[in-house]
Design a protein that fits this description.
- With about 240 residues, the chain is mainly alpha-helical.
- It has one domain.
- Helix content is about 80%, strand content about 0%.
- Helix 3 runs parallel beside helix 9 and helix 7 packs antiparallel against helix 8.
- The longest helix is centred in the middle third of the chain and has 28 residues.
- The protein starts with a helix and ends in a 14-residue tail after the last helix.
Length: about 240
């Protein structure tokens, strides 16, 4: 009875947990405990992964589970980001997480069904986001530890842009509540990463950028679990094949 009640009100449970994690994150950052603040990023990923596995009872798309796993591992290793080798490993895990999402969504999109209006709108959005990512990569160039570190930042940024393009196309083709939530999840991830870099390198906005990044991260995780809980027709379900 209690289990059914929790599952029925999973949105409220997730929202409360997200707010607690956000408040705790802001608190430890305010106390300048940056080690714990970074560690909490990984905790956020693994907490929502735990909720996903609990709610879906092993019936969830394995690719989405793998995404949360690798994204969480990347967040854990980033605690020691100032060391070149660990920074590279963190970025590799982050890239793998994004590529897993691309693998999941790519079979569910079709470029043949794109009309001229959507192509124009998509072009504007992709160019705008591409410009933001270009500026971000250019600004971080002088702060990278090695050429491999910089290359991974560049490749990771490009993969995020590809994922955003596919998410928009996925939503356009299916136009359901689930597809919209997934697209919002992807863009929340994108801007969480952008604001995380802005806050880390202290480019602008001070601590506000750090808190916005954590808020967007938790929002993205909340949206992902919500997407997984929504009933979907077979045609809009993301691919579950790893290879």
């Amino acid at each position: 009875m209690k289990v059914r009640l929790i599952q029925k009100e999973y949105k409220r449970v997730l929202a409360i947990v997200a707010l607690i994690l956000l408040a705790f994150s802001i608190g430890v950052h305010h106390e300048e405990n940056y080690f714990l603040y970074r560690m909490l990023r990984a905790v956020c990923c693994f907490v929502f992964l735990g909720f996903l596995l609990y709610f879906k009872k092993r019936k969830e798309n394995p690719l989405l589970v793998l995404f949360l796993l690798f994204y969480g591992l990347s967040s854990f290793i980033v605690v020691w980001y100032e060391k070149n080798t660990l920074a590279i490993i963190s970025l590799i895990f982050n890239l793998i997480a994004v590529l897993i999402l691309i693998r999941a969504i790519f079979p569910k999109v079709s470029f043949k069904k794109m009309n001229s209006y959507f192509i124009s709108l998509l072009t504007v959005l992709v160019l705008f986001n591409g410009y933001l990512l270009y500026e971000f990569v250019y600004m971080t160039k002088d702060y990278t530890f090695s050429s491999a570190h910089y290359a991974l930042i560049l490749v990771g940024s490009m993969s995020l842009l590809v994922l955003c393009f596919l998410a928009l196309l996925y939503n356009f083709l299916h136009s359901t509540k689930a597809s919209l939530i997934f697209a919002l999840f992807v863009f929340a991830i994108l801007f969480a990463e952008i604001f995380r870099a802005i806050g880390y390198y202290d480019f602008a906005y001070g601590n506000a950028a750090v808190y916005i990044s954590r808020f967007l991260l938790l929002t993205s995780l909340y949206l992902l679990v919500n997407y997984c809980m929504i009933e979907k027709v077979e045609s809009e379900k993301l691919s579950q094949r790893i290879f």
